## 1
Amino acid sequence: MTAIAADRALASALDAGLGAMGLDPDAGVRTRLLGYLELLDKWNRVYNLTAIREPAKMLTHHLLDSLSILPALDARLPDGPVRVLDVGSGAGLPGVPIALARPDWQVDMLEPVHKKATFIAQALAELRIANARAHAVRVEDHHAAPYTIVVSRAFADVASFAASAARHVARNGRLLAMKGVYPHEELQELDERMQVEAVMPVQVPGVEAARHLVFARPVAA
């Protein structure tokens, strides 16, 4: 067992955070979430994948922040298979935690920075995450069937995200932008071809800063 996986304080914080959000993944998923945290901490010492250095803060500001979108997503999914595209995934956030928590979903992560895409691929291999893939390409150069959910955590402002990624959203799918404070000005710049469906405040356990989810959907031509 790795040091982080054996850290009772981190395991307890993960359990408490998941419980507060109404999530209840099995013990195997919880262990692999901590395993991902271990890999992120290890690689970050050399490759500077994230500015956050402390594992406890990585857990709240990365893992729990990524997983906090799941209750809102679950309530908005159409029937049928779920395909998720994570645009500008960085170190695999929110894509890797989502893939672990929802093993029946297919998750593709786009990250053009080579060292970050390499880390994602290595994490998927080491944690045996079969339902996810890493792509070292820009969203403009990605070609695939449309996705149920196209999500971005730290890619760009809402309008730029929609302009570059809207073509990847399935007709009954959603564009999801993870933001901090309510993005009033960003929403005013959104193209009329995308309709804002909801802007939801989200509480992330252990994170005091404001969080909002912007759901938008393509407007039928």
Note: Strands lie at 83-87, 106-110, 132-135, 147-152, 169-179, 194-201, 212-218.
## 2
Amino acid sequence: MRIVAGIFKGTTLYGSKDKKTRPLKDMVRESVFNFLTHSNKIFHSLEESNVLDLYSGTGSFGLECISRKAKRVVFIEKEKETLNILKKNIDKLKAKDKTKILFNDVFQTFEESEKIFFDFLLGTKFDFIFCDPPFKDANMEHLVELIVKKKLLKENGIIIFHRHKNTEDKLPAYFEIIDKRVYGISKIIFGKLYSKLS
């Protein structure tokens, strides 16, 4: 697993031996970032963007954003061993000043630890939110609802889901899928919220 492009291009990241941790393959990550960089459906630049990396694992998506000059990335990860690898990867890139980490479950963070979470974010809204939950999780509709309720996404911001290609998630009617791509067993969904809700 390596950084595909940007100032840290070619840097190898530490990986996890835990089979539950499922980082995007380099080829898939490269394709995702090509879409984010070059599609006329994307209105925010990765440069100077704020990124929220949910279920962040060892950080391959968020750290790719840092390499491509994102302003700040907030990681949320609940597995302690994986979190330690994420910290090692951040240290390896000397990117601590551009990152923040919350050690918690995503839904618990949004629903039960609201004050801690929002004090931590200091009012940040995000240009991009990447969601890579376990394939077995089936509550993506609620996750989008919470993103809307907490006003986490900027207007015209993008939510990216990594799901199993055969998963048919129920999503809110105000979540507009702007692109969908399949790579092996993985499916990447790019979407945005109708402007009146974002």
Note: The longest strand covers residues 153-164.
## 3
Amino acid sequence: MKQKIKISFIILSLFVILTSCDSKSGGHQKHKGEDNMTVIAKPVTTVSEYKIEKVVFFIENSGSMLGYVKKPNDYKNAIVSLSYFPEFDNSQKEFYFINGKNNPKKNTKISSNTIGSDPEVLKNNLNQSSFNNNGDPRYSDLTLMFEQALKCAKEGTISILVSDCIYDVGEESDPLTALKIETEKTKKVFRDRIASENIQTIISTEKVIYY
């Protein structure tokens, strides 16, 4: 009998505060071109060297993520490898599980639970038992998870959210409309953050195959 293979995608969203640009020229300069016309040269801008002081990892541990930690696979390898990136060697690291949904009627709220700062401890917690015992794995609110990750992204700090990016719209009578509303909420979270600070978002996908 052939085994069924499920292929899914993990989204790694990385938020980086960009350093401001400095002008080397100190202002506009005028000089004469070959045709004796005045040329106005704009200042050359360079981005100063960026130092990563801290990396904060948020790993979604809702029910839809349990399959990824059932056995060793590319999902675990990707997260552990990312935590050991050479660019992060001199950076402080923080690891959190994140799940839940702000809904008093269902007795749940968004929560992030620390799993320390050691990649080895992180690796040992990438299992179904740890996923089930931190927060409320019944629910996930993608917008609030993005918002939490964005709050931690500031100058010198990178925030990484690992998620399957599935919206939890619950038992809505009109799920398509509910999904549209949720995506608009997510966009607004980014717009609000961009309005206050200059940030960059990098989205990376990892294909995961498990049986």
Note: The CA atoms of residues 41 and 82 lie 42 Å apart.
